[in-house]
Amino acid sequence: KDHKYTIGEINQLVMQPLTKGFEAELWNTLYYNTKVTPYFIFTEYDLPNPKYYDPKTKNIYIKLSQFQKDSDFDKTRGMIEELLHAMTVPKLNEYKDSVEYKALDEDYQIAKELKETYKETEQYQSLSDTQKSQMDRMVDYYLQNIEEFTVGISDPYFRAFLRLGQSKDQNLLESLIERVKKLLNKILKGFAPSLYTDVTSDVFNFIF
Q1: 44-63 burial by CB neighbour count: b if 16+ within 10 A, else e?
Q2: Contact 173, 159 (CB under 8 A)
Q3: How far is residue 127's CA from residue 152's CA, in Å, rounded to a whole number?
Q4: Which of 85, 82, 84, 107 has its CA nearest to residue 179?
Q5: Residue (of 88, 89, 77, 72) closest to 26 by Cα position
Q6: What is the mean pLDDT of residues 141-154?
Q7: SS (H, E, C) 179-200
Q8: CA-to-CA distance for 36 and 13, rounded, in angstroms?
Q9: What does the pLDDT look like over 88-140, one tens digit per residue?
């Protein structure tokens, strides 16, 4: 049975009791500045990532069995990460002309090219049939569009796929993480300029 909570209920039941210090400051700033209203849906699913934001439904999905095992820190950090995605990813198209978006799109194009050849790599060939099937599924899913691509770095199979590619002088995963951080930070400044103090100059460094 799925358990569905509003952001207000998550704030009251999970985040206020479990966060303190920087985590609490970060969550409260996001919570009181956000205009998005995703549902947090606790359920079971067969994707490997324990939490994810779905750009199509605009909801956050959390694997209940894993959440119950997580430490308080992992629980709250995951909630913060997914709320950040819910706040920033739908705004990507508004920043298409920015340097940060164009850099991210470069990596997206590289990843789409990598899709044509990754099955020939030694790393892929060394996987079990089950692992290959899971990676293929995640590659198809996260290369649908740039919104899915942006949130794909939370998935372990997609991260493994990205490590097979190169973007300039670093592997594609390292490059994508840096480019996602820069673009989402730029978008986040529009929501919550107060986050940008000496202490919290780069919110996404806390997440990744």
Answers
A1: eeeebbbbbbbbeeebbbbb
A2: yes
A3: 20
A4: 107
A5: 77
A6: 88
A7: HHHHHHHHHHHHHCHHHCCCCC
A8: 19
A9: 888 888 899 999 999 999 999 999 999 999 999 999 999 999 999 999 999 99
